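Backbone shape codes
____________________
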Amino acid sequence: METSGLAATISWWGFGLGLVFGFIANKSNFCTMGAVSDIVNMGDWGRMRAWLLAIAIAMIGTNALAYLGYINLDKTIYTGASFPWLAYIVGGAIFGVGMTLGSGCGNKTLVRVGGGNLKSVVVFIYMGYAAMLTLKGIFGAFRVKVLQAPAVTLQLDHGQTLPELLSGIGGLDPKTMLLAVTAVISLAILIFVFIDREFRQHLDNNLAGLILGLVVVAGWYVTGHMGLAENPETLEITYFGTNSHLAESMSFVAPTAYTMEYWAYWTDTSTVITFGIATVFGVGIGSFIYSLITKSFRWEHFSSSQDMFRHIIGGTLMGFGGVTAMGCTIGQGMTGVSTLSLGSILAFASIVAGAAITMKIQYYMMMREA
């Protein structure tokens, strides 16, 4: 297959996986911001368990592919030797604040756009533009020179995944350590998830965790195995169909920026649809299809100017924070964590902390006004 045809194939796969993701996320009301809110405000762990189940499934499948040699997890943005700890913490926390103000993470924003939510259209635009400025524009200088500067460089022969960092302990080789760490962490998550009887009986939460976790695994296989080929110009093995030119899976902040860039430079023939851009379209359309089938599509708008301002700030913070932390609640919280990257775990914890603190402050202010 010609490389142009291969890149197009990878993009079509991304669109298909996005369709599934958007359809199931809408059907099950899968929302990572909602999962944190349920715990903070009601003590309900149902949607958090669905998120954790998706993480466990993604972790098991991703590392099984790596163990069997189908993908190389060293070739991702999550697993390098550079560990910009401040960017993970600050970016993750800012994204958590933003998704709370914007009523949902990047994935939920796309799902709501597909369901007719005009507020999420505004969030999408501001998130994408802020992400673009953080990737290549004025915000990028601050990101690189300030937040990524105090990075810890690990040993050159080690990345930041837990199996690589722990390799050699107990005489275990890297591949055996990969299986051991994956088994221990995923088993602990699964026990926590399914020990709850109410969760076991909740079909939608189980469906969301299983299917969305498998979508992440499929994304890794598509870009990391199917998209790997020899570049006829350089004669080097290259990952085709992704913006990073590395293996990728589901993530929705940087791809939103690339989507807006694609629209802006529509007539530029060098600008093409990639796996990430295709997933953005896929999630929105998948959600739209579900809303049509169930007749749940309805237009929603801002209730006040303050409501609009809050969502604009939320979208802007999500764009900046998501790029700085190198992922959102899906990009880091599921895709990144599936690689067992230490940075992804730190970013994931920072996102949850940022969201939880913001929710507590909102609740305090609401009670004081009352």
About this structure: Residues 342-369 form the longest helix (28 residues). Residues 158 and 165 are 7 Å apart (CA to CA).
